[in-house]
Amino acid sequence: MTKKMPLHQVSDFDLRLLRVFKTVAExxxxxxxxxxxxxxxxxxxxxxxDLEKRLGMRxxxxxxxxxxLTDEGRxxxxxxxxxxxxxEGFRSEVNQMHQQLRGDLNVAIVNNLVTQPKxxxxxxxxxxxREGAGVRINLSMSTPGEIERGLVDGRLHVGAVPLITPLxxxxxxxxxxxxxxxxxxxxxxxxxxxAGVSNDDLIRADAVVPTYRMTAEAIGLHQLLNVAASAxxxxxxxxxxxxxxxxxxxxxxxxxxxxxxxxxxxLDPGRLYFDSKLAVxxxxxxxxxxxxxxxxxxxxxxxxx
Length: 305
What we know:
The chain is α/β, with parallel strands linked by helices. The protein is about 45% helix and about 25% strand.
């Protein structure tokens, strides 16, 4: 590696290289980053080599043993993310002065909200994109904890999460209310008498439970079940229910497609259900951001409609 020299100036070229490095680190390899960046592995390798020469340090190990960041690489990644967030903040403030929608909107939501019939997020994204051709929407699916951490550290502008234990550093606004029922598949023994099942039936049936946070009401209902499997999200729960070997709770809007096809049924729906609230969350004391404010305003408008 070349002798370490001070970095006297950060150019546009350096920023482009940092964005490549950040993407490679997030993807975990050069090959995985190809489709995200839209360039070949050899081009990525050249960019990484240029950045390492520019900084005078090795950022990652790559070879037969796989891809791994060096200690210096982790520090550069952390510092680079801070720089890129600051640049985006600067761009947002300039856009605020011009009253033009131009820049990134980083949104993260929990999975399986696309089947929510009210579609408030969908309509708000559509409105923002229609009003500003210069808006780049970056949408990611993640766990509630990861979304809240992303909001706190500034990587995300807005997130949709279950409203269970609010964090003091975030503002929350009610977005959806959804009902979840206990479901089994058409291949499960309880399907034949789904309308009325006893607690003894539940104890004899294997159940899948989520590993994410739940309300006290949801926890109480899950305690009636014979836990035999777990899943990190609702799609995982649906997969296991459809095997015919498990029962589990799903939001009604998400299960509706399988119910309509006769592939699932709600068990004792008048008794075995719970209601959940989902909220849109933003960081308290956030910088002015015209794109984010327009998105939040559109959510309010769809709520009133």
